[in-house]
Amino acid sequence: MVSRVIPVDPFDLVIFGGTGDLARRKILPGLYRRYYDGQMPEEARIIGAARSEMDADGFRDFVRGALDEFVTKRHDKKMVDAFLAKLDYVAVDAKGTGGWDALAKTMRDGVVKAYYFSVGPALFGDIADRLHEHGITDDDARIVVEKPFGHNLETARALNATLAAHFDETQIYRIDHYLGKETVQNLMAVRFGNMLFEPLWNAQYVDHIQITVSETVGVGGRGEYYDKSGAMRDMVQNHLMQLLCLTAMEPPSRYDPDAVRDEKLKVIRALETTGHDDIVRGQYKSREESYLEDVDNPGSITESFIAMKVRIANWRWNGTPFYLRTGKRMKERVSEIVVRFKEPPHSIFEEDTGQSANELTIRLQPNEGMDLTVTIKEPGPGGMRLIDVPLDMTFAEALGEEAADVPDAYERLIMDVIRGNQTLFMRGDEVEAAWAWTDPIIEDWTRREDRPYPYEPGSTGPEEAMILMHRDRRRWRELRA
Ligand code: NAD
Asked: The pTM is what?
């Protein structure tokens, strides 16, 4: 049941920041898996470009180490050697002139040229300028840029303008790896490929929607960066916003990059400003462990948790709130969207028979899949007792173990870059619209010097987040891995 692997066109992919953490953990292992599966043609080449002085063999050793550490399935010595033979390396200084002539000489004509900017955003402008000066871009070349895409609307606009100086929007691939997840695409398949859900997908039948992205880890070694951004900028403005858009958008006329992104943009523009009564911010804190120590800033009022109630002002969703929550050092690592339908308008059964509302859960991790609870009669000779049972659509169960072994988000997205398909990448106006909604909320906290509530590490967040739901006679779905 596994779909055919269609090789992409020959390419030269340059990874700026090829020796960095992201390249080592995600990009290079992902590319190896695509090679192993036959999706990368023999003519393809991957060129590491970073500050470190090393030669191609040094880079190959570095990548071999990365594959040993991060590729578990499909690790095969012969295949690894063949993959490493496709690698090259050029030491470049993004801010200076060193290495650029050598890079220009390395690039071939007649293949897709892709440049992955896996470096801090402060270098995007310099790299774009150098590529242009050295004439190693053409109208068909693509650039891939990593998050964070700006710190607010002003910086996002400036970044968009910097890239637009040398590249057309059709050449810019802004990565949000959540969009590369199998289930996220499946959300579109389920919504728009079936008659079953779409007629019910509106305020008349949906009570509310919950989007949760919880992590068990704290801020780790990223303390300094994280403290300047917090959960709102780091997670809500991008990942949760993208999930909200795909859940709430109108059916696009085609599965085509701009048709999909136009509909997502309309959702962001229809978001009402969320007042502070509908937001709960938190910071993890116990005697042994605290956010403040992790970021080494005793006076920090940045949030490591946020829960919020969001409204979309349009016909489809008027009256159906979306509840978003995300946090670090929580009980379980879970990413899921829960669509909670309304209860039937009238029950023909006796009151305590146990009937409740249907729930569709779209799980991004762990165990990517979907799950729909339906109410049925409890088997047995007793009276009419009802129970809710899950109709489990975990990929492994439905399609076999092999089909569950789907490409990681990064692999899928990089192949889309080579294929020239922007559907799963954020467009510049989408990013700006998301900041335009986020900025006033953050400015309001700053003005009021809003302080986050403390929560126990390993919990489900501050008590106040529960109250946010209880106030509306609703509850968060239990955090279950
Ligand atoms: P890193 O610090 O581990 O690596 C940075 C890379 O950039 C290195 O290869 C370094 O040699 C290169 N570099 C730095 N200055 C340079 C210069 N002047 N000229 C040429 N090369 C230079 O960073 P990372 O964690 O790999 O992150 C890269 C980008 O990806 C960042 O924008 C980050 O925000 C983003 N990102 C990273 C992760 C992650 O999990 N690491 C996740 C999401 C987004």
From this structure: 0.94
Residue to mutate, 97, 118, 145, ligand 1, most ligand atoms under 8 Å from C-beta: 118
Q: Of 125, 146, 167, which marks where a domain is finished? A: 146
> What gap in Å lies between CA 208 and CA 210, rounded to an integer?
7
Q: pLDDT tens digits for 60-87? A: 999 999 999 999 888 899 999 999 999 9
Which residue, by CA, sits nearest to atom 6 of ligand 1? 17
Cα of 435 vs centre of ligand 1, distance in Å, is: 23
Number of domains in the chain: 2
Give the model confidence (pLDDT) of 455-471 as tens digits: 999 999 999 999 999 99
Question: For atom 44 of ligand 1, which residue has the closest CA?
Answer: 147
Residues 357 and 447 placed together within one structural domain of the fold: yes
Edge-to-edge order in the sheet of strand 112-117: 87-91, 45-50, 11-16, 112-117, 142-145, 172-174
CATH of residue 337: 3.30.360.10
Structural domain boundaries enclosing 321: 179-470
pLDDT in tens, 193-205: 999 999 999 999 9
Residues with CB under 6 A from ligand 1: 17-23, 50-52, 92-95, 118-121, 123, 146-148
Residue indicated by tokens 């979907």: 370
- According to DSSP, residue 373 is labeled E
Residue 58 lies in a domain: yes
